């Protein structure tokens, strides 16, 4: 019998307060600093949302101009970072290369060695913008390297979303694609104490540095029960092939006790608040690329899952096919999630620093009774 004091997976446990976001399964809502994420996705750039998460308020027009200029000035990759990525075998998962690159950025930041260099809020504000600016360059470099293509330099005349797509593909897609990409970034930016954010907070709680905390968060995000689900959705779609196979495929997968990726959520049990917004973006992409077959498969699996298990999709379900239509390699989907969630991760790391208590839970020992060596 489970001990009543044990909370496997910390399910239902409230471990701290936060002012960054609130997930409300009862009202099916997600608020960033009080604003519904749907409103932010409809009306704000990703840069504005990043600023909001870090500073608690949306930027004024002047603050936004200064913030955008700073982000645009920090996009170029250091040759040493390129070399660190190149040292990771091209066959490795892009999340492994991303994790290595971020870890290496920490090694290159000599200000960490200054007195109070790890915790200084001004230095950390700068590091957060630096990571925000660098992650798209790293992710784009990794995808192009995987395709055997030369890297594309960033452009400071482009906003965050456009520049990200430019560096990845070497051309600018139509506005409908840029907008769907921006929406995905806004929706992925923050989600309270999810596994990767909590990992980042655990690392920050030891007063380790922001790069270490983000490196650990990337490791947590990689897993298929968390961020890795968005690419796993496309592996499932590839197995299913077309809408008319969805029910048979699902019955077999459930009989084999497989988890259906992109469905279910630890907090939302009646549907993920972010899904309708991302599904609308997916619909616009489907129309743009004339891929009604993709939406038919999407709907067929969703309906079959509802009928068999009454489990609803999470954000990774619409974002997987959306990123696929945009032309990203499947293994780059989770790095895209990381490039958005860097905003939430760093906001939480700084919140942890500001009112820190070492995160160190207890466990109930169930091993052998005390015993002694017979020597
Ligand atoms: N496919 C099949 N069965 C499922 C699924 C699923 N995706 N999700 C939950 N269930 C079943 C589960 O088997 C269990 O059934 P039973 O009570 O008969 O054993 C019941 O529903 C409760 O599930 P649980 O695993 O105890 O719930 P949880 O809160 O621990 O898990 C979850 C949440 C996200 C880990 C799980 O739903 C899952 O593995 N989903 C697939 C992976 C996925 O899509 N992850 C992305 C999560 S959200 C966005 C993100 O972070 O990236």
UniProtKB/TrEMBL annotation:
The keyword Zinc does not apply. This is Citrate synthase. Pfam families: Citrate_synt. It catalyses: oxaloacetate + acetyl-CoA + H2O = citrate + CoA + H(+). NCBIfam families: cit_synth_II, PRK14033.1. InterPro entries: 2-MeCitrate/Citrate_synth_II, Citrate_synth-like_lrg_a-sub, Citrate_synth-like_sm_a-sub, Citrate_synthase, Citrate_synthase_AS, Citrate_synthase_bac-typ, Citrate_synthase_sf. Keywords: Acyltransferase, Transferase, Tricarboxylic acid cycle. It comes from the Bacteria. Belongs to the citrate synthase family. GO terms for molecular function: 2-methylcitrate synthase activity; citrate synthase activity. It comes from Leifsonia williamsii. Pathway: Carbohydrate metabolism; tricarboxylic acid cycle. SUPFAM superfamilies: Citrate synthase.
């Amino acid at each position: 019998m489970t001990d009543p004091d044990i909370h496997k997976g910390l399910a239902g446990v409230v471990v701290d307060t936060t002012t960054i976001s609130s997930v409300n399964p009862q009202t099916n809502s997600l608020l960033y600093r009080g604003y519904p994420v749907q409103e932010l996705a409809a009306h704000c750039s990703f840069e504005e949302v990043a600023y909001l998460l870090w500073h608690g308020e949306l930027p004024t027009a002047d603050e936004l101009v200064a913030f955008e200029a700073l982000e645009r000035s920090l996009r170029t990759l250091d040759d040493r970072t390129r070399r660190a990525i190149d040292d990771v075998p091209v066959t490795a998962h892009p999340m492994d290369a991303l994790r290595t690159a971020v870890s290496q950025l920490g090694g290159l930041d000599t200000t960490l060695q200054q007195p109070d260099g790890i915790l200084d809020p001004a230095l950390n504000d700068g590091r957060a913008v630096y990571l925000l600016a660098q992650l798209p360059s790293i992710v784009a470099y990794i995808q192009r390297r995987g395709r055997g293509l030369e890297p594309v330099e960033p452009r400071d005349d482009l906003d965050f979303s456009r520049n990200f797509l430019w560096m990845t593909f070497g051309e600018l897609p139509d506005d409908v694609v840029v907008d769907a990409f921006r929406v995905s970034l806004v929706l992925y930016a923050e989600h309270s104490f999810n596994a990767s954010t909590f990992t980042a907070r655990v690392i920050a709680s030891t007063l380790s540095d922001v790069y270490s905390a983000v490196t650990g968060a990337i490791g947590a995000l990689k897993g298929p029960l968390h961020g890795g689900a968005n690419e796993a959705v496309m592996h499932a779609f590839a197995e299913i092939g077309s809408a008319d196979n969805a029910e048979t495929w699902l019955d077999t997968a459930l009989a084999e006790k497989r988890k259906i990726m992109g469905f279910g959520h630890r907090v939302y049990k009646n549907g993920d608040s972010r899904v309708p917004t991302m599904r609308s973006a997916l619909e616009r992409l489907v129309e743009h690329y004339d891929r009604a077959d993709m939406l038919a498969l999407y709907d067929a699996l969703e309906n079959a899952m509802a009928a068999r298990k009454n489990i609803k999709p999470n954000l990774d379900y619409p974002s997987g096919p959306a990123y696929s239509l945009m032309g990203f390699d499947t293994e780059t989907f989770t790095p895209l999630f990381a490039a958005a969630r860097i905003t939430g991760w760093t906001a939480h790391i700084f919140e942890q620093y500001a009112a820190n208590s070492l995160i160190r839970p207890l466990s109930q020992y169930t091993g052998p009774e005390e015993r002694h060596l017979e020597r």
